[in-house]
Amino acid sequence: MADVKISQLSAASSAVSGMEYEVNDSGTSKKVTGTQILAWISAALNSVFVRLATDGALTAGFTTTAVNDGTKSSGTYTPTPAGGNMKRAVNGGAHTLAAPSVSGDYTIIIQYTNNGSAGAITFSGFSKVTGDTLTTTNGHDYFIFITKVNGFTHAAKQLLQ
To answer: Do residues 34 and 71 both lie within one domain?
Structure first.
């Protein structure tokens, strides 16, 4: 085949694993297949991302910043895993904490802090609520651990004093 610019070649309808591609390896022209390119990309991505379709152990730790869901002083607070599973909120008055309604299985942790107007928190829609009795004392903190699996939703209350 005569020397032809790549721009002059007709386009393939799609890229497949058996196709060959020209690469420059330290000044030497070589060929690689689509299969080789896919293997290289997969290895690079697997070292950076958690794969969704396979079992495996996480070998690195991850951190996050808790989402500030603001002051809850009345009405109903329905947390959602959207935006992050770690939340924080201020108990600024009597309100209802409703079970999350987003589909799927997940855990949400809410760190509550009571302010001077803290009120009773009523739990609604949970399959089970367990744990410590929550206080309304100004400055008291507690965690609410919410777990949703297969349609069951559990809230566990833990005082931090």
So the answer is: no
Give pTM, 2 decimals. 0.69
Residues 22, 74, single domain; the answer is: no
Amino acid letter at 63? T
- Region of 103 (left: φ > 0; alpha: ψ -120 to 50; beta: rest) is beta
**Edge to edge, what strands does the sheet with 95-98 contain?**
76-77, 95-98, 121-124
- Which pLDDT band holds residue 119 (cuts at 50, 70, 90)? very high
* 5 occurs within a structural domain: no
| pLDDT tens per residue, range 36-57 | 998 888 888 877 776 666 677 7
* 21 and 88 fall within a common domain: no
* The residue to which tokens 């070589």 are assigned: 30
> What is the number of domains present in the chain?
2
In degrees and rounded to multiples of 5, residue 97 shows phi and psi of -105, 110
